[in-house]
Amino acid sequence: xxxxxxxxxxxxxxxxxxxxxxxxxxxxxxxxxxxxxxxxxxxxxxxxxxxxxxxxxxxxxxxxxxxxxxxxxxxxxxxxxxxxxxxxxxxxxxxxxxxxxxxxxxxxxxxxxxxxxxxxxxxxxxxxxxxxxxxxxxxxxxxxxxxxxxxxxxxxxxxxxxxxxxxxxxxxxxxxxxxxxxxxxxxxxxxxxx
Length: 194
Description:
- The protein is an all-alpha fold and 194 residues long.
- It has two domains: 1-32, no CATH class; 38-193, no CATH class.
- Helices cover 74% and strands 0% of the residues.
- It has eleven helices and no strands.
- The protein has helices at residues 3-6, 11-19, 22-31, 40-66, 69-86, 92-99, 103-123, 127-145, 155-161, 166-178, 186-193.
- α5 (69-86) runs antiparallel to α6 and α7 packs across α8 (127-145).
- The radius of gyration is 21 Å and the shape is globular.
- Mean pLDDT is 86; it is low at 1-21 and 23-33.
């Protein structure tokens, strides 16, 4: 391969190599996860949602770290409920054997993690990496609280009880796939420098 197609690999290269025309170059741009190739209004909308999500996590993390109450009393109480009632069965041993012996440490770790997510989303710094961590964090919470409506409840109640985790998980996946730090973020500034 030579020229422009030599710089690409995968499906984009195949499209460019076989197309030879502008029509499929546009289709190749759609496959690109970088916001610079997308509609600027979409990029700004995703950036605004990213920043708003960051402020939500700032509130979540701040109250957990501003006072020792969450790490010393709140988190251990939540964890007991997860282990005994709410977590999916295959996840309970992890919570009981790994998390429970170190509840104060993990109580503070949750607050630090939420502040890291907040700073990353607000500043637009390391958004893709943080989105992976955020997705895993929301998955962890979903697995920990899945049975909160009780066993034998209607299926919709389980999803309804997870409206504070599943939508955030989807947002993190959108931020990851769209490289949301490129607009109104430090990630975009750093990419322009390289």
